[in-house]
Write a structure and sequence with these properties.
Largest sheet: 4 strands, antiparallel
Number of domains: 1
Number of strands: 6
Order of helices and strands: HEHEHEEEEH
CATH architecture: 2-Layer Sandwich
Oligomer: single chain
Helix content: 25-40%
CATH superfamily: RRM (RNA recognition motif) domain
Strand content: 35-45%
Length: about 100
């Protein structure tokens, strides 16, 4: 059985994600086999907030070159979580 910490791998902290945080939207890297319902339950359990909407996106790896050989970075799944208006903000993003 998967725990909430198996579903949510890490937060994605970039300039775009910090701008989205002002609108109560947060980005997370999640397990590839996780679906929207599992992500919603995991976020609500870990951060004690109310989730309004979850968008999930598969991010493919970028092509990289090391000398003569070509390779790709690892692909992953990204979830953008929107909180309800009366929910508190996630402290992890507000401290930065």
């Amino acid at each position: 059985m998967k725990t909430s910490y198996d579903v949510i791998i890490r937060p994605i902290i970039t300039e775009d994600s910090m701008e989205m945080a002002e609108e109560k939207k947060y980005a997370f890297k999640v397990a590839k086999e996780a679906n929207k319902t599992e992500v919603r339950k995991a976020i609500e359990e870990i951060f004690d907030v109310e989730v309004a909407k979850v968008n999930v996106e598969n991010v493919s790896g970028k092509k990289k070159r090391m000398g003569r050989t070509m390779g790709t970075t690892a692909s992953y799944k990204k979830a953008i979580v929107t909180l309800t208006a009366d929910s508190k903000a996630i402290e992890l993003f507000s401290d930065l």
